[in-house]
Amino acid sequence: KVANQRMNAIQSRIASLKEKQMDLLSEKGKLEGEKSVHDSNLQKRIDLMEELATKYGLELTFSQTQQTDGMNTQGSLITDDDGISLFTNNTSGSATSIHITDEDLEAFERSVLNKRSRLEEQLYEHRELSRIGEDSIQNDLSELNGKIKSIENDLKRIAVERDKAKKEHMKISRITTSAQVRESDIQDARNQVKKFTDIRNEKMNDPRRVEIPLEIKQNEERMKNLKSGVDDLNAILKQLRKVAEEQNYINMLERQVVADKSMMQDMINENSFTLQSKKIEIRLDDPGLTDNMRIVVNELSDKLDQTKQDFERYSENLKDAENRLSALTGMLSQKKLTLNKKTDQLEALCADGGGVQRIKHIIKAARQFETNTFDETTLTADVEPQQLLQHFADKMGDLASDSDQPETISRTIKKLKKLSKKKNAAGETVDIICPCCTRSLDGDEALIFQSQIQKLADVSESPIIQMDREKGQINAMATRNYSIWRNTVSASINDWLDHKRISTEIDNLKESIKGDEENLGQLQEEVKNLMTKVDEERDEKTGLQEAFDIVRRLSEEATKLSSKNYQIKNKKEELNLEAPDVGGKDLTTVEYKLQTKTEEKEKLMNAISSLHNELSQLNDAVNAATIKCTQAERIVRSKEEQYAQEQESSAKKRELNASLKKYQEDEQKLEEELTPLREKASIKSTERDKFRTESKNEETKRMELLSNFNNHYEKIQSLSKQIEQYSKDNKLNFLLSLESEISSIIDEVHRCEDELSTLLPQVEEMKQKVQDKEAHQDNVRRNLELLDMIAAQHRLEDEQDLLQEKFDKLNYKETIERLNSIKKKMEKYKSEFDRRVGSRDALMVQQRELKRKLQTPEYKDIDERHRIKMIEHETSSMCVSDLDLYYNALDKALLRYHGIKIEEINKIIKELWSLTYRGEDITNIRLTSDQDTSSRAARSYNYRVVMTKGATELDMRGRCSAGQRVLASLVIRLALAETFCINCGVMALDEPTTNLDYANKRGLATALAQIIAHRSAQDNFQLIIITHDEEFVSMMKQELSSQTGFDMPERYFQVSREESHDGCYYSKITPVDWDEI
Q1: What is the Cα–Cα distance from 682 to 137, expressed in whole angstroms?
Q2: Alpha carbon distance 663, 253 (integer Å)
Q3: How far does the chain reach from its first CA to its final CA, in angstroms?
Q4: How far, in Å, CA of 115 to CA of 81, rounded?
Q5: Residue among 733, 748, 542 nearest 17 (CA)
Q6: What is the pTM for the complete model shown?
């Protein structure tokens, strides 16, 4: 045992040492990796320092310390001017320690800092020099620009004064463009006045002006007498002619009546079939033809209306029936399609190997098994799977509680044996009785009874136990079958439920399809009948309509015929009454006298007309002479005024010519001074830009040099910090100590393994001895256990007897009842447990099915897809919220902008309207959009033009004249152009004076002139006016000439239509000078 413990201790020691060795080796590998990085950092630092020294002109060398076989060899040490000492290793085949002393690093850092300071000073000096040079050039350029600006200001001033003088000169030139007036012209005009005055006086003193009115009066009196005689003759002639006219009119009416009857008869003959089909008979010789025709028309109208109503009703019914037929046909087709799908699903579920077939086979097998095994079964062929599962659970519970243990049967037999012993008060057996009927048994019966009881209590020979075992085997087999069947039914119950559900749906669909097919047949028959009815009613309606049209036309003709007959009758009666006495004169005599008097009357009228013409000519001559005299006087006054203005303008024009010449000389002188200054300024500007570019490039180069230098130095500092940290951690010494410790552990392991190999044979020998000893000990232990068990058996028998006595004293009936009640509860709980197990199995089957569905493409990765969709939903919601904010802000801005622009437009409209409109009925007009109080900008605006008079406001539509509408439209267009087209100043007006009176035309010209003057400073302003109104053009010229601050247009353009040499007409545009207007 001691050797075994020693060996176990050595093995544990070896295992712990090896585990520690592995940890140390791992730590060693880590340290060796860090050492490799450290060596690499040393080499990188050396390379970077060499590169920095080479690139920026730093002279430096380095030495190396080499360790070979425990000996140190020192290389040469070279120090540059800055005092930098570097150490490295380039010797192959030997272990080398690369390091740089702190003094070397400090010296290197001082050298680098000095170099960086020099580079920064050079950059600063370059910037100062660049700034000084640029300031010098800029000062020279500013001085030149100041001189140029001063000269340009003088030029502008001179240009303004020159333009002002030129405009005044042009104005004077326009005034004096016509021929000049001389004093002789004025004297000639005065002689013309005297001449026209003499002519007027001569015309006014002509004697015919007094004679002609007297002759006209005499002729008018003779005309009056002739007119009375003519009127009398006309009355007689009218009466004579009236009788002849009345007779002619009667003859014409009679001819029309005959023609109308013939036409009506032709119409009746042409449409006889239609009239006969409707049982209509018309007699033209019937005295009550008109009334009869009216009655026939009314009857046909009523029939036609009724037929139309019937036709519309049948058409509606047909349309409704066709819609129902179409809907029912579609529904029936859909149901048949669904039935086919359900039938296919049902066939798939009922396929061999499916869940439904398995359950049916199980029901059949279970019924057969229970009939063969238990001689009866409670299962029916159409039992439901849930009831089947419950049946299996109940059976399994019954079978589990139906088997007894052999020991229990043996104890029961022994209890019966004890019950067969009848004891006295002292507890002694006095008789053997039957435990069932308590009958006393004689000697042979008692022996047979004892022998039989003994045989029944024997576990190996008891027929009861043997029978119970056989029953247990049967029950075990049944339980196993029930368990297999229950699992199979649980796995297939979903298919059964689907089969049952689909079967029910198929039955319902078949019943529904059957009912729909019956309804479809009825609907088809109904549609067929309705189509027949509609066709019949359509034919009837068409026939009635044709008959109605014919009868209505005949009725109208009959009404006209009746009216003509009535006129003929009345005219004949009037003709008999209108034959007054005419004094025995005939129509020819009266007509001759009337013609003679009429000719005489016409001669007098011609004479009177001739006299009136002569008098009118005399008056016209007087008026013409008066007008010529007045015009001559006006010309004299005009020439006198023009002569005075020309004298004044000539003096002013000479003065302006001298001023313009002086302005021109000053401008030429300033231009000569300005040209060299601009050239110098351009040269200086080019020099400044070139200097800036060169300075910027040089500064960029120096900054890049300094930046590269700093980056290089920062890399060296970073490597130095890593090297210092490695040295500070003292990891090299730690690595050496680890190697020493690993070596000692390896030695210790070898020692333990040697000791273990020595102990192993001894331990094997000792194990053999121990095994022999343990076998002997085992035999002794078993004998002791046997003795203990025998003693325990005797003790238990005594306890059993004692307990039997106590049991005999107890009320065992109550205990048995409690036991039976507990057993029933146990059976109930077991049944409930089995039912729950069945339910659990069914749920597990459903769970597996759901898991299988979760693996399908439809549900695979559903959590991730749901998460992504939720993210998309939340993101979209946030975007929608942000867009709502932006939309509301933009909406408010648009509404505010719209209100501002409408206010600006109405302000301009008010100014233009007050300037242009000369009427008193409209004070102002303005635009409204019905959006003033809304909180959101409209997608479209219903603009209205309203007019105001005082405090009253009305819509202009339908309440103003054409001229007011035209003027309002022009004012609104001008206001819109002023508001929205300030950067696109092109506006065209086509016939703007349409329907405008003189005052409003004058106002429009004033407004346009003010707009032109206001927008003249705008470079891109262009106004185009197209008009036929030359008076409006003259108004525009006058208004423009009254404005200041802009040049008058040089000309306007006239469009005419001329014939070309090829016979075609073409439009021609001709420029016309304003002065020719």
Answers
A1: 12
A2: 101
A3: 147
A4: 13
A5: 748
A6: 0.30
